[in-house]
Amino acid sequence: MSASKAHIEPGRLLINGQWVDGSKTFETVNPATGAVLTSVVEASATDVDHAAQAARQAFADHLGPWRKMSASERGRLIWRLADLVENHLPELAELETLDNGKPIFESRYVDLPMVVDVLRYYAGWATKIHGETVNAFESAFTYTLREPVGVVGLIIPWNFPLLLACWKLGPALACGCTVILKPAEQTSLTTLRLGELALEAGFPAGVINIVTGGPDVGKAMVAHDAIDKIAFTGSSAVGREIMRGAADSLKRITLELGGKSPNIVFADSDIESAVKGAINGIFYGKGEVCNAGSRLFLETPIKNQFLEKLVLRAKKMQPADPLDPKTRMGAMVSREQIETVLGYIEAGKTEGAKLIAGGNRVTLNDGKGFFIQPTIFDEVKNDMKIAQEEIFGPVLAILAFDGLDQVVELANQNPYGLAAAVWTRDVKKAHVVSRQLRAGTVWINTYGLMDPSLPFGGYKSSGFGRELGQNALEHYTEVKTVWMNLG
Ligand code: NAD
């Protein structure tokens, strides 16, 4: 394994513009080597309370420094943060790879550049958020204001740590909210470094607070009265808990949850492109991707030919040192995650699916790293566990189909609805299927493309609310209607 030159300080909490120690800490580990990277604070309920009070103070309706700042100044600060991230891009990319196990190729050329783009996209929005005048009556002047929702708790998963933090941070700050940001306990390091860059950028104290730790920290945020909204990305199970927890206070919530996305290949598609799309769809990010194309539907006439090419490519894509720029398959994020994935592989075998590639843990680095082979199951039935549940690993389920109607029905027979893809040369068929699929994003003849300007989010158990694009702004603002009597 390549040696990293990174010197990583122990993590602290960012509360009210100050770095503070916590009373409890835990170790964060490099999943490729099992080596301890550093220690991170497990924030207490009191720490969360201090962060919430600091965020409240900085918001403080019209009196806080953040509310007094013009939209243009807010936008400039977000842009400055983007510049600082860009200036530190190689360092942040390496830190992300060390903490998460994803290939440096992905951190450096996908995650981090998109962090910069997302921050800049929302920096531009800061000056363009406005209400409207509505001429309903001659005798009244009526208009709407779009006001920040207030203090927002951002709860982030471990698969795209800094990127998903900034998907929320960008619109929250652009809308004038103050935030308490909680990274996942497995991957806190880039978020903490972002906190340092935010201070350097000049954000007023209390606008961005960072609390690290596990589920209890998230629960304390959901329960806190001073927090107006929770923006959550993570599993559907935790999403449901958050929804229940937010019910009493009627906190606003947006939930970006799990997925089991169908990737549908018709017989008339460009097979070479579709094979590459299928590989990228499931094995990018080690399959620890919410929109992974984990169900591959192949039309019967091309199935065998397609699988031959697919298996060949999967076998070439063996896991290796995440810091090596040539690596395309890194380490799973944690021991728990690799055990979950291996459990699903066993379930696939037990339920009668046919293992045609991978299926095993890979021993690299004296067996201390959490590596697993790209895995493909053929002859999967739609009611099997590996066809219905989110595995969140590099495991692909192949299902055969005959014709449009059958595949739409099979694809929609799943609790999730995050994303889908369709491969065909028939334009009409592509659009008909896109309309019939119950999913928040549909890709045609490609897989996994994202852009800050295009909304992303789920149908059904994949959550609600949309991130990215103009749509995200709706979820960080309230609309106020003002009536002025002119009579
Ligand atoms: P997770 O739900 O276990 O944890 C996510 C975050 O929630 C972590 O910060 C965790 O500490 C916190 N948390 C855990 N329990 C909590 C509770 N009871 N109350 C409040 N906070 C709590 O998810 P994970 O394992 O980190 O991430 C994987 C999941 O995230 C997958 O299901 C994946 O599909 C989903 N995901 C969705 C998207 C999307 O955009 N839809 C993107 C990435 C990941």
What does this 3D model show about the protein?
This protein has 487 residues and is an alpha/beta fold. 39% of the residues lie in helices and 21% in strands. The chain contains 16 helices and 24 strands. The strands form 7 sheets. A 7-stranded mixed sheet has the order 14-17-18-13-12-20-21, with helices on both faces. Strands 9-8-7-10-11-23 form a 6-stranded mixed sheet, with helices on both faces. Helix 3 (71-87) packs antiparallel against helix 5 (104-125), helix 4 crosses helix 5 (104-125) and helix 5 runs parallel beside helix 6 (161-174). The model has no long low-confidence stretch (mean pLDDT 96). The structure holds nicotinamide-adenine-dinucleotide. Nicotinamide-adenine-dinucleotide is lined by residues 155-159, 164, 182, 184-185, 214-215, 218-219, 222, 233-235, 238, 241-242, 256-259, 290, 390, 392, 418, 458, 462-463.
